[in-house]
Amino acid sequence: MRKLTYFVACSIDGFIGDESGDASFMYPFVDEEFIAFLTAEYPETMAAHGRRALGVHDLPPRRFDTVIQGRGSYDVGLKEGFTSPYDHLRQYVASRTLTESPDPHVEIVAADPLGKVRELKAEEGELGIYLCGGAQLAGQLRDEIDELVIKTYPVALGTGMPMFAAGFSVAEFALDEVRVFKNGVVVRAYSRKR
Q1: Which of 101, 129, 132, 172 has its CA 20 to 30 A from that of 109?
Q2: Is the whole model's pTM more than 0.70, yes or no?
Q3: 108, 92, 111: which is closest to 100 by C-alpha?
């Protein structure tokens, strides 16, 4: 069974963006040391245009061969003209409002993203599924998330878009790894206790 990993950036107080989902306040923390970490450990989580700019577009996937994201996350790149933001992965966008894909390499999941993720997890393969966000989709898929990789940036927002937009329900995860960067970013990896 393949794993679903929510690989997410957030503030110290657990928000992935402001109320509208804007997370641009995190960009200054993506420095040379952090880019080296992403390139070495999670190269496939970088969007295709970023990979090309850094000259790492040829790096093979290390952990994921598939990405699923919500409409809001997809719109971030779409507004900049990137119709296929992760062209190095199989791409799915969960959306009830986007009826037609703007790119042949992006499949729209209009109904039942939970069913789609279960189908993807049941496939044969060593690489997993990258849940890119956002809060609504993460909330819908919370019970299917096998691993959390949380990139915490040293800022407090006070309010904003939470990591999960879901009702209250306790789900326990075990801490597997912690990585601390000079700029104050902390990356924690957790696996679900089942």
Answers
A1: 172
A2: yes
A3: 108
